[in-house]
Amino acid sequence: MTHKENSERSELLDTLILVAQENPDTPTVDLHSLDVNEARAVLDKFLDSQFMAGDKVVQIVTGTGKGILSREMRDVLERSSYIKHYESFGPVIYSVLNNF
Known about the structure:
This protein has about 100 residues and is of the alpha+beta class. The protein has one domain: Ribosomal Protein S8, Chain: A, domain 1, CATH 3.30.1370. The protein contains 3 helices and 4 strands. It has helices at about 5-20, 35-55, 70-80, and strands at about 30, 55-60, 85-90, 90-95. Strands 1-2-4-3 form a 4-stranded mixed beta sheet, with helices on both faces. A hairpin with a 2-residue loop joins strand 3 (about 85-90) and strand 4 (about 90-95). Helix 2 crosses helix 3 (about 70-80). The longest helix is centred in the N-terminal third of the chain and has 20 residues, at about 5-20. The radius of gyration is 13 Å and the shape is globular. The two termini are about 15 Å apart.
């Protein structure tokens, strides 16, 4: 992939996330009241379901606090075959799925 193609891809992914932030219908999972193990299981199931449904972008709410849950969920996203790209915005993570 050329530098230009890589830059265009990055801009497109960022645009998808911006649109998702403004869309109240973006599929969302709220994990903030769960412990890390419960949150991993719920997130895995949610990603599988949304990928199969053909969604392009999802919102993951980890909440505020010490950042442990957010860190752990970003680790899950890093290893997930469903995720193409993600951006963290405080207590919320937006993820672009690989079916885009």
